[in-house]
């Protein structure tokens, strides 16, 4: 009973930390609840993706908005629902990486609250490409179930990196606080998420190939991020997790765009 309550409170804690959804209750913050909050991230992603897919469907089917306008509102939703917290990590990571300094200097740059030129440029191109992928997909199809799984997989990748990644580059900050609560055995939870996904795929309307390619792409993104952050930063930070979420979502939108419009189109 106590564990079930901790899991529920961990989920609400994740909503408080990673979305702007108001949770009007005080939740004790301890190691167990933080652990369940982190392991709830894929569920948070599923919820974000589900509401996003509904927005795509309603905007295209029930309004006179153009595909480009629908895409802009959808892009705004994905940024707004998280309060831009992950984009902040993405811009800090871009600033640090493109400084072409050594690992220690890059970590110092990531601590700087100011946004530099490289961060602004990276954010501009990330948003522009994602907007393009969204707009063309909205114009090409009417079934948007695939959008449910893009935020789901991006957060599944982050959980996998926390459990079996290159380790934390700094033993401080929120990223370290979250990651240190997880152990190798928690991979069983991620495997459970994947099993639910593969069981659900045959029952979901749309093209199974899109969903399966997302899963394969996510495995590749996990392996790439694991190597990239070890070589470039000596490990992970809280900003790295935001960068992984935003970067992997953009790649998954691109994969879906290429598959739907240029392979199966």
TrEMBL record:
Main location: membrane
InterPro entries: CobS
Lineage start: Bacteria, Bacillati, Bacillota, Bacilli, Bacillales
Official protein name in the record: Adenosylcobinamide-GDP ribazoletransferase
Lipid bilayer topology: Multi-pass membrane protein
Cofactor(s) the record lists: Mg(2+)
Function as written in the Swiss-Prot or TrEMBL entry: Joins adenosylcobinamide-GDP and alpha-ribazole to generate adenosylcobalamin (Ado-cobalamin). Also synthesizes adenosylcobalamin 5'-phosphate from adenosylcobinamide-GDP and alpha-ribazole 5'-phosphate.
UniProt cross-references to NCBIfam families, sorted A to Z: cobS
Annotated organism of origin: Aeribacillus pallidus
Transmembrane segments: 36-59, 65-87, 115-138, 144-166, 210-229, 241-264
Gene Ontology terms for molecular function: adenosylcobinamide-GDP ribazoletransferase activity; cobalamin 5'-phosphate synthase activity
Origin: domain of life: Bacteria
The family this protein is said to belong to: Belongs to the CobS family.
């Amino acid at each position: 009973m106590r564990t079930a309550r901790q899991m529920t409170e961990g989920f609400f804690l994740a909503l408080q930390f990673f979305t702007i959804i108001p949770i009007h209750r005080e939740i004790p913050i301890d190691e167990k609840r933080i652990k369940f909050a982190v392991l709830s991230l894929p569920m948070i992603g599923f919820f974000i993706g589900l509401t996003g897919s509904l927005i795509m469907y309603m905007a295209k089917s029930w309004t006179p908005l153009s595909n480009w306008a629908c895409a802009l509102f959808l892009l705004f939703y994905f940024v707004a629902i998280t309060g831009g917290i992950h984009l902040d990590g993405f811009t800090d990571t871009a600033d640090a990486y493109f400084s072409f300094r050594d690992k220690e200097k890059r970590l110092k740059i990531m601590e700087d609250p100011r946004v530099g030129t490289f961060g602004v440029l990276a954010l501009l191109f990330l948003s522009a490409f994602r907007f393009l992928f969204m707009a063309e997909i909205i114009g090409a199809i009417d079934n948007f179930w695939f959008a449910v799984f893009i935020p789901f997989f991006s957060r599944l990748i982050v959980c996998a990196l926390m459990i079996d990644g290159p380790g934390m580059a700094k033993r401080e900050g929120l990223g370290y606080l979250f990651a240190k609560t997880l152990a190798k055995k928690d991979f069983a939870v991620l495997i459970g998420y994947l099993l639910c996904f593969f069981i659900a795929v045959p029952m979901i309307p749309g093209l199974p190939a899109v969903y399966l390619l997302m899963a394969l792409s996510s495995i590749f993104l996990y392996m790439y991020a694991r190597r990239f952050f070890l070589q470039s930063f000596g490990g992970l930070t809280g900003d790295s997790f935001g960068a992984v979420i935003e970067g992997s979502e953009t790649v998954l939108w691109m994969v879906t765009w290429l598959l739907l419009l240029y392979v199966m189109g």
